[in-house]
Model the fold of this input.
Amino acid sequence: MECKSDKESPNEESPVHGNVLVVDDQPLPRRALANELRDGGFTVQEAADGAEGWSHFCQHKPDLVITDLVMPASDGLQLLGRIRSQSDVPVILFSAYGTVQSTAAAFKAGAQDFLCAEELSEEGIVERVSQVLSSVHNHLESSPIYRHFVGQSPSIKRLRSQLAALAPLASPVLVFGQAGTGRDSAVRTLHELGFTTGGLFTRVEPSTPIPDLSSAFPAALYLDGFERFPSETRDRWLHRLGDVERRGYGKTRRIFISSTWSPLRWRDEPAFASSPGHSLLNSAVGLPSMATYRKDIPEIAAVLCARISSRLGRKFRLSTAALRLVAEHEWRGQARQIAQLIERAIHFSSGQLVRRETLELMIHESADSLSRYRTLHQENQQDLLTQTLRQCGGNISLTARRLNRSRGAVYRMLSKYRIPLERGN
Done:
């Protein structure tokens, strides 16, 4: 599927095309089918048997696979089995010797459709492939994954695939990424698609008491910003995760953790040397930064505008010039910053169009506010460090524990703010 350019209207629909893999050991029929699909607007790769087809599948990540059932070396059912072990990509099998048994076997193995070889030579195959891909596309659009994470960049596709794979599992999940990349949305998606959906979802802050698992306990606990939790509290939470595993509570309850720290950094934490820590690191999913999906920004902005205006009870869309500005701007605050600015721009827009000049004004106001915030933040940091040092009698180790920082971080702050280190001061 083609991503809309910044020159298109956000409401304009594009045809559903995609990348198709054709697998057949007979060269002439394979090329005829491939060419027919190319004429229909699809990108096509070809493979001569199941083994080569699997190699192409891993390399090109097709949106749909059409494969012969009977082939030497590795047949269509074997290829289908390998694909189903890792992906829900639709697979259409065909055979010149189709029987009731082979048709049943194909559908039981997870095939999207089973066709006679004669049906492949008809013009209807292009329409059939389009119908299958359109159905998949519509299903994705209605799912929480697609609602929260739109776009066709490889990093976004990979994220959607990882979330879909993790959602039905019972294991705890660590979601990590920069501020504004959508960690909350990822956790909500996992909850909505998993076995805890419909159950009580509770967000936990660093000061929240740790509940007793043997008594009342929500279906899903979300430990938001785990790096902000004191180290002793993190240790106790990981110990409770061990209780979840040992007592089998994971069958009815699930714990999600979000963090700006990557698994590499968490591996150095003593608490993550435990079995629950290993489980979290093994099921960690990273949220990509906007730099990896810049071409999706116009589509993301259009979706955010529609979602926000609907929530506000209004009907707005971004003008072509506004979409172009969104695509060109450097968004250091990630998708969250885009959403905040669009919402503010909607409040100050008339008619049903958010124009470029309105969005530009919001961006300039935001930049001025950010500059003032940074100055105030630095002043507050300096005052907090000076006050804590005084309370701790200049003891760096005690100061670091009070501030939940490392000794090295405290020394860097002292150097940055040029605070003299005098014991008792």
